[in-house]
Design brief:
Helix content: under 10%
Number of helices: 2
Shape: globular
Distance between the termini: 49 Å
Strand content: 25-35%
Radius of gyration: 18 Å
Largest sheet: 4 strands, mixed
């Protein structure tokens, strides 16, 4: 039984500690209609029922697609007696570039074997300079400033892959001239690693003048500093 009220069944860790970065799967589950999936409240129905976290602090798993199947990866240490909970957002892309599939909502996931990777006109690469490695399972959000009303419109929320990249951050054909913002949840990233940090988040605001050019916005960070620049 899930620890989330009225959530029905749940999946719990009854073994030893599940370390950060542990991958397990695959799970094939079964395909449902979007409406049915949305009403279920589950991220992926297979051999058990993994519920969606109510808030970021509860999340201890990330789900991702690889070669048309669903895997899970721990994004923090999962202690014995803890329920397994995934993000309420989107499936991540896969493990290797040529085998990645586009990011799609949990509730609307369809069979997608053989789908080619999405080539995004806007890319990012997050590097953890404290460990000298890519920052994976790093939450970020992309927004665009609307000319009328001067309000930010969220275009999507995603997580970095094991290489610290976000394939499919902005689908082809969706980039237009304007002002954009990348929000990086630095506090959440360091908290999951048991590390105190100085900056709770980083917002990188930049302008795109030519929608036909690809734009690369990397982020290099440590618990006490960060650097960004226009890459290529």
């Amino acid at each position: 039984q899930s620890g989330i009220p009225e959530a029905g069944l749940g999946v719990w860790n009854e073994a030893s500690d599940l370390p950060l970065g542990l991958n397990f799967g695959p799970y094939e589950g079964h395909i449902t209609e979007e409406e049915e999936a949305a009403k279920s409240g589950y991220s992926w129905r297979t051999g058990g029922y993994v519920n969606c976290a109510r808030e970021d602090e509860e999340q201890n798993l990330v789900a991702f697609q690889y070669r048309g199947q669903v895997f899970y990866r721990t994004c923090q240490v999962v202690r014995p007696g803890c329920e397994l909970l995934v993000c309420t957002g989107q499936l991540q892309s896969g493990l290797e570039g040529e085998d990645c599939v586009p990011e799609v909502p949990f509730s609307g996931w369809k069979e997608s074997r053989g789908v080619e990777p999405v080539s995004s006109p806007l890319t990012t690469h997050v590097l953890d300079t404290a460990s000298g490695s890519p920052a994976w399972s790093f939450c970020l959000c992309l927004s665009r400033l609307e000319v009328h009303g001067q309000q930010w419109t969220e275009l999507g929320k995603s997580y970095t892959d094991p290489e610290g990249r976000c394939p499919g951050l902005l689908p082809p054909g969706h980039m237009k001239a304007g002002t954009y913002k990348l929000f990086f949840d630095t506090e959440g990233y360091w908290r999951k690693r048991g590390q105190e940090s100085f900056y709770p988040y980083v917002e990188v605001v930049f302008t795109i003048t030519n929608e036909t050019h690809k734009v690369h916005v990397p982020l290099l960070l440590s618990p006490w500093s960060y650097t960004t620049y226009r890459g290529s």
